[in-house]
Each structure stands twice: as structure tokens, then as C-alpha cells.
Amino acid sequence: MMNTLEHLKKYPIISILRRLPQENCLKAVQALYEGGIRSVEITADSDDILSTIGEIKMRYPSMKVGAGTVLSVDMAEQLLDCRVDFMLSPVVNKTVIQKVVMNNCIMIPGAFTPTEVLEAYEAGAQIIKLFPAHFLGSKFIKDLSGPLPFIPCAPTGGIDSSNILEYLEAGAHCLGVSSAFPTHSKTIGDNEYQEIVRKALEITAIVRKFQEG
């Protein structure tokens, strides 16, 4: 069985689901799964996050489920109890990083500068989220890999089917994707569901073609 780092390399699209009611979140995950997505992030400010993560893990054993916007040790401890596969944060908080890593969970903190990237990695983070990626661009990732080739990066922010290939070619380990999937409707009916599936299929096809060379 693949560990989480290997899984995120093979299935590098992490679909970010933020503040969705549980019913919508579960519908969105079902549509994403149908479209080939195998990695999702539920932000910690979502309602019923602990039960939602547990439900997703039960329904989709082949998915890796992460929790995002983890800003405190208390929140990290709660999420560890529900066996979350990885955690993300928009910032570098060394105490949170160390708590998560010490409990054999993948931590992906957000960084914006080379100094922050290295500090997060030296604190124990296994992957660094480059955020917000649309300000940095794919060239930044390629340039960063020159002096820091040993640090896996996950660009997040403004990534969709039009530019995802650039980030993959620049060396991204995995990528956080949010607005590219229309998951934030007040209700997810048949039309919204099918659009999520379509977008997911579109993006996963680009990834598969890239991985096949």
C-alpha cells in the first residue's frame, strides 16, 4: 500500500473544499471521485469537519483525506483523532508542524519565500505549500528547485486546467486546487454534480498524460 507521500505524488490534485455544509461536501467528494480525484482537503473551518472526514474515509478507502487551515495545536490534536491523512496550513507554525509530524501525519504548511520554505522543511514538514501560487507563478517553483531541490512543493491558489501543466513541469509534488471545481454552489444538484465530474476528468486527464510522458 502506498504511503501518503507516494499517494500525493501519484494523485497530485488535492481538491480543496471550504466551509461546505456536510451534505454538499459529501456530494462534491462523490463527484470528484467519479472524475478521478483521489486526494481532498476539507478546511478546518467547515461545519462537522470531524464527522465529515470520517464519513469520506469510510466511503472512499482509496482516497487520502486532508484537513486544511490548521492553525493551532488543539485543532491538530482533534484531527489526529479522526485519522486524517495529512494537514495543511496557510502559514508556518513550527509548533503545529512538530505536533503533526510527531504523530506520523503529513504536514503541509504554507510558505511564500525561500526562507519560509526552508524553515518549514527544517521544522519537519514533508511538503511545503507555496501559497498563494498565482502571485509566485510556476517559474518560481522551478527557480526554487535550483538551490532547494530536496524540498517537495505543493503550489496552491489560482490553479486550473489552463496552467496545471506548467506547475507539473516545474516540479510540483502535488497541487492544491479550489476554484477550478464548481463545488461551492449553495446546492449541488444534477447540473452542478455533472460539471464537477467534467472538470475533474479534464484535469486528471492532463495529469495522467504528463505522468505517462
Task: Present the secondary structure layout.
Elements (H helix, E strand, L loop, with lengths): L3 H7 L2 E5 L4 H13 L4 E5 L5 H11 L4 E5 L4 H9 L4 E4 L4 H9 L3 E6 L2 H9 L5 E3 L2 H12 L8 E3 L8 H7 L4 E3 L12 H23 L1
Parallel strand pairs: 1-2, 1-8, 2-3, 3-4, 4-5, 5-6, 6-7
Helix pairs in contact: 2-3, 2-9, 4-5, 7-8, 8-9
Structural notes for this entry:
- With about 210 residues, the chain is of the alpha/beta class.
- It has a single domain (about 5-210), classed as TIM Barrel.
- The protein is built from 9 helices and 8 strands.
- It has helices at about 5-10, 20-35, 50-60, 75-80, 95-100, 115-120, 135-145, 165-170, 190-210, and strands spanning about 15, 40-45, 65-70, 85-90, 105-110, 130, 155, 175.
- It has an 8-stranded parallel beta sheet, with helices on both faces.
- The protein starts with a helix and ends with a helix.
- The mean pLDDT is about 95.
Integer count of domains? 1
E-strand count: 8
Strand order of the largest sheet: 7-6-5-4-3-2-1-8
Order of helices and strands: HEHEHEHEHEHEHEHEH
Could you give the distance between the termini? 24 Å
* CATH architecture designation: Alpha-Beta Barrel
Structural class estimated from helices and strands: alpha/beta
Q: In the CATH hierarchy, what is the superfamily?
A: Aldolase class I
* Regions with little confidence, pLDDT below 50 for 5+ residues: none
Q: What composes the largest sheet?
A: 8 strands, parallel
Spatial extent as radius of gyration: 16 Å
Shape assignment = globular
At the third CATH level, what is the topology name?
A: TIM Barrel
Helical coverage, percent range = 40-55%
CATH domain class = Alpha Beta
Beta-strand percentage? 15-25%
- Enumerate how many helices there are, as a single number: 9
Arithmetic mean of pLDDT: 95
